[in-house]
Amino acid sequence: MSGITANPTVGAFSDKLISMGGSTILTEVPEMFGAEELLMNRCETEDLFNQTVALVNDFKNYFKSHNQTIYENPSPGNKKGGISSLEDKSLGCTQKSGSAPVMGVLSYGEPVKEKGLNLLSAPGNDLVASTALAASGAHIVLFTTGRGTPFASPVPTVKISTNNQLAKKKQNWIDFNCGVMVNDTPLDELSENLLDFVLEIASGKKSKSEEAGFHDMAIFKQGVTL
């Protein structure tokens, strides 16, 4: 469901925020494997194109140096949730970036400098990637989930449900439900609602994880992190 509901909504939100002069950051580089050319083709300059190629290839070489095949991504949990191949997961990842051009490519821990869409070097692990986003200057993390997770990053973490069942079952975890798209809520309306909700979070409204007093962090370690 993520490719039908939550990911396109986050992508449309990203485009709206960027059109207002904001910045967004896409990470989890291993999840880009298989659809990286879609991002490369959106690079604003040749230099950014080359940096994006290096971003992806450096991670592939990192995997190879530890004798780890890149095709272990998607994870078993992804497969149980309906993602059958690396390409499925990669297309879902790139959906979250919307359609804006790539304006910046960041190394792990590098602060964001450019307005617009930025790509950040970090692994696919949820908490490691979210911590990296915070380290690069993200004020809020948008986390789409079809199976549910109680995790939270060092900054406000908005957990976005892909389906109505999850939003109903885990109301204490889920902040925003994109499952209503299957009930004929248009994408533009839903992304506008998400923008309004994020503005509320940015203005001091607590996310569900903040209400629970839950924060966590994880640093990228030596060895392979899927």
What descriptors fit this protein?
about 230 residues; alpha/beta; 3-stranded parallel beta sheet; globular
Q: In a few lines, what is going on in this structure?
A:
This protein is of the alpha/beta class.
Task: Compile the SSE list and pairings.
Layout: H1 6-19, E1 23-26, H2 36-40, H3 46-65, H4 76-80, H5 86-95, E2 102-106, E3 116-120, H6 126-135, E4 141-145, E5 157-161, H7 164-169, E6 176-177, H8 187-202, H9 208-211
Parallel strand pairs: 1-3, 2-3, 4-5, 5-6
Helix pairs in contact: 1-5, 1-8
Q: What report would you give on this structure?
A:
- Helix content is 40%, strand content 12%.
- Helix 1 runs parallel beside helix 5 (86-95) and helix 1 crosses helix 8.
- The protein has helices at residues 6-19, 36-40, 46-65, 76-80, 86-95, 126-135, 164-169, 187-202, 208-211; strands at 23-26, 102-106, 116-120, 141-145, 157-161, 176-177.
- The mean pLDDT is 92.
- With 226 residues, it is of the alpha/beta class.
- The chain is built from nine helices and six strands, in the order H-E-H-H-H-H-E-E-H-E-E-H-E-H-H.
- The strands form two sheets. It has a three-stranded parallel β-sheet with strand order 1-3-2. Strands 4-5-6 form a three-stranded parallel β-sheet.
- The protein has one domain.
